[in-house]
Amino acid sequence: MQIAVNLPNDFVSFQSAADIEKDMRLSYSLWLFKNARVTLSKAAELAGMDIYEFMAACKQNDVPVIDISKEELLEELAGMNLP
Fold first, then answer.
1. Three-state helix/strand/coil letters over the chain
2. pTM for the model
3. Which of 34, 33, 35 is nearest to 45 (CA)?
C-alpha cells in the first residue's frame, strides 16, 4: 500500500524524499509498537531495520521494549528458584 502525504515545501526542503520516508516509517513504527498494535519484529520490519537497530531506536525515543514492572520482574525471578 502506498500513502501520499502533502507537506509544505518549507518543512521538507532540507531533506530528501528518501530521508523523509525513512523518518516517517520509523516514527509510525515506534507509535505502532508503543501502542501495542504490532510486535517488535513487525515494527522493525516496517522501519526497515533489524530488531537490534529498532530496539536502539526505541531507547533513543524513550519507548520501552519490555513492558513489565519491577514488581512483576521480581516475582518472575523469585519463581525461578535460581541457585
1. CCCCCCCCHHHHCCCCHHHHHHHHHHHHHHHHHHCCCCCHHHHHHHHCCCHHHHHHHHHHCCCCCCCCCHHHHHHHHHCCCCC
2. 0.78
3. 33
**In the Cβ-directed half-sphere of 43, how many Cα atoms lie within 13 Å?**
25
Question: Worst-scoring range by mean pLDDT, 32-36, 44-48, 66-70?
Answer: 66-70
Domain interval for residue 68: 16-78
Asked if 39 and 6 count as a contact pair (C-beta separation under 8 A), the reply is: no
Total structural domains in the chain?
A: 1
User: Is 6 within the bounds of a domain?
Assistant: no
Q: Contact, 32 vs 46, CB < 8 A?
A: yes
Q: Does some domain include residue 5?
A: no
Half-sphere CA count of 64, side-chain side, radius 13 A? 6
Instruction: Work out the average pLDDT over 67-72.
Output: 86
